[in-house]
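Lab channel / #folding
Pinned by the channel admin:
"Please post every new chain as: sequence first, then the structure tokens as a reply. Keep commentary short and put observations after the output so the thread stays searchable."

First post following the new format, from NK:
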Amino acid sequence: LDATGGGESANSYVDLAEANAYFADRLDSDAWTEAGATSPPRQERALITAAYRLDQEEYRGEKASSTQALAWPRVGIPGVDSTAIPVEIKRAQMELALALLTEETSLADTGLEAFENVKIGPIDITPRQRSAGALPAHVRRFLRGVLAGSAVQFRIVRG
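Reply from TO:
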């Protein structure tokens, strides 16, 4: 697991110690602890898979370096340090890693995953709660300020 911010061989935004500390304080994270007890431990693979999945999203700004392996850090985003990985990205990665360990989450998308049932005659379509390949809603909430096309919010204070 390589969590070197901006590194050429980085494959994660957080290291295992940071993820373990995060989940130690989080409710309903037993699957994370259980994944650490498997042989080999599944935690690192979940973090790497989550980082690669997050990197498939389109973010504002651009990579800080042309040689960095992952999408973050980034330049050109007001209020975001271009030399560091934002805490929102780290939390999104850890939450997605946990979701990968606890849910039947497929990263492949054939186009039919959005449906629980598709019946041709007479048409009977039942949508799923979330389609495969889509990020869980709680993970997307962490990313809402940095995704391409996301609205930038300003706070106006009258003096």
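NK: The chain has a mean pLDDT of 84.
TO: also worth noting, The beta strands are 62-63, 74-75, 115-119, 124-127.
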